[in-house]
Amino acid sequence: MNIVSLSAGCCLFATGPLTEPVGVVHYLIVGAILFTAGVVCMALKRNALGVLMGIELVLNGANLNFVAFSSPYLRGAGSATLGLDGQVIALFVILLAAAEAAVALAITLNFYNNHSTVDIDRADDLKG
Amino acid sequence: MGNESMISLSGMVMAPVLAAGLPLAAINWHSVLFLLFASLASIFAVGVVLADNVVRMALYLVFSLAATAGLFFLAGAEFIGAMQLMIYVGGTLVLLVFGVMLTAQAPFVSIKPSAADRALAGLAGSSLLVVLLAAALSVDSWQRPGLSEVTAPTATPLGMALLGMRVDGPAAGAATGAVANGYLLPFEIVSIHLLVVLVGAAYLARAKRRRTPRPIDAAASAVSVVEGSTRVELPAALPPRSGSASALVSGGSK
């Protein structure tokens, strides 16, 4: 792993401040931060709704990467992009996330009705 | 936590501009807006992780997703940005906030994870972030700066693609005469999927029975259950405090 490019990528704005147009790598960095925050949120939270919020963050990080790779504005001249495919996939991800949130919220409310709690550490009825 | 980071963020954005004395014409405002929205999205995403109160987590998630919609607009995907605002921020998060409000009883508003869990999650999360950043920065063609010109709007090609016709790119097939593949079948599958999922969610979340029934209902159900099995066990099966209520119900039914 080349540390030089990593530090250069992180300090791209600090060295050449705000005059360079942004590229794909900046979107990828933001997407990586969102994805990591979502994964940590899913693993750490004990509230079932907190886990759902972590899933939303993960899906948004992935969506950001799809949109960044599909954008001809970000890839620069002469680079191949995903074109419209990336945006269509992002649109489907948004719709399926809405469906997933509805079902997961219904399951959470069912669990709350039956157990009077939303603490997922108490959801151990199926342990063998 | 939010206020200090926001102040330091705005200082961080404005300080190099003022210190370097850049002429305003040299500043790429696309990059400035990107930096603003990217900082907002990242800071509020980290805020979702760090907050223990579930209501604050929902609020930070709203801000993070709205800033992500701003990033979509900046990438030239204005239709996706609008859908992000309408479906995610306007629909999914309202659903989540309803869930928060329905379950936010006093002991569940903030369920704190243990310190060992926090340390482990911090370690795993930082290592995952290092891996992802290394992967993102390892390809040279991704490091190139983008163009500085505005692209065409994408709402019309997107709608045509969802109807099964491609009017963009090499898949349009204008030269070869080939039939371009659109997204009509995934569009239909997603629509049926949404219908099934929403009906199923409404079925799952319907109100079935109360957790603590009213005394008159409990007494009535107890009487009906006991009458269904054996009448002999009637005095022993009933709880003592609902005896008068069951007498009231049975008296009223005569």
Quaternary structure type: heterodimer
Radius of gyration of chain B, in Å, reads 29 Å
Mean pLDDT of chain A: 82
- Please give the largest β-sheet of chain B: none
Q: What would CATH call the homologous superfamily of the domain at 2-152 in chain B?
A: NADH-ubiquinone/plastoquinone oxidoreductase chain 6, subunit NuoJ
Weakly predicted, low-confidence segments of chain B: 1-11, 228-254
Number of DSSP strand runs of chain A: 0
Helix content of chain A: over 70%
Shape of chain A: elongated
Order of helices and strands of chain A: HHHHHH
CATH topology of the domain at 2-152 in chain B: Four Helix Bundle (Hemerythrin (Met), subunit A)
Give a written overview of the molecule.
The complex is a heterodimer of chains A (128) and B (254). Helix content of chain A is 72%, strand content 0%. By secondary structure, chain A is mainly α. Chain B is mainly α. Chain B contains ten helices and no strands. The longest helix of chain B is centred in the middle third of the chain and has 26 residues, at 78-103. The radius of gyration of chain B is 29 Å and the shape is extended. The chains are: A mainly alpha (128), B mainly alpha (254). Chains A and B meet through helix 1, helix 3, helix 4, helix 5 and helix 6 of A and helix 1, helix 2, helix 3, helix 4 and helix 5 of B.
